[in-house]
Amino acid sequence: MRRRAAVLAAGALAGALALTGCSESGTGTDKAELSVGSSYMPQPVSADMAAGFLTITNKGGAGDELTSVTSDVAGEVTMHSTVGGAMTEKSSFAIPAHGRLVFKSGGNHLMFEELKRAPKQGQTVTVKLTFDKSGPLTVEMPVKSATYNPSTGH
Question: Which mean pLDDT values do the consecutive 10-residue runs of the chain (154 residues) have?
Fold first, then answer.
């Protein structure tokens, strides 16, 4: 009799834990959970234009879209994709659920146009990212050397 009661209690406990696990895994999965990393701007070699790179990670269960970028250092920030060597301006970029949007040299990138000042290596540039569904994110983008390559650190 004790064994049967123990088995029933263990089964009830396992069922309760399984249900708890289901409800916890469902928490937050209906929205995007965005964060930004690996941001940098190579020191501009032009007086009026600069590039910017970063990675937006979405740990949430819903996708979102990056719809605009602004910065205190530029009159305008545009978003571009590069495919097969051809650069195209984009009005938005999708960020998939449980995925990433990567802006890197030779690929998707930001163009800071009509620079108000010339960012120098060692400084930071404030960048505001606006999304379709999520609230905006503000990023402090460090200015690196003009030849900086994140894969080599130089």
Answer: 43 39 48 97 95 98 98 97 92 98 95 96 98 97 94 72
Contact between 90 and 79 under an 8 Å Cβ cutoff? The reply is yes
Task: Indicate the pTM of the whole model.
Answer: 0.80
Tell me the backbone φ, ψ of residue 117, rounded to 5 degrees: -155, 160
pLDDT at 11 (0 to 100): 43
Tally Cβ neighbours within 10 Å of residue 39.
20
Q: What length does the chain have?
A: 154
The Cα 154–Cα 150 span in angstroms is 7
Which pLDDT does position 28 carry in this prediction? Answer: 52
Output the DSSP codes for 45-63: SSSSEEEEEEEEEE-SSS-
Residue 85: the pLDDT is 87
CA quadruple 93, 67, 65, 100: dihedral sign: positive
For residues 76-88, one letter each, b for 16 or more C-beta atoms within 10 angstroms of the residue's C-beta and e for the rest, the string is ebebbeeeeeeee
- H/E element holding 95? strand 93-95
Please calculate the CA angle 124-44-41 and round it to the nearest 5 degrees: 40
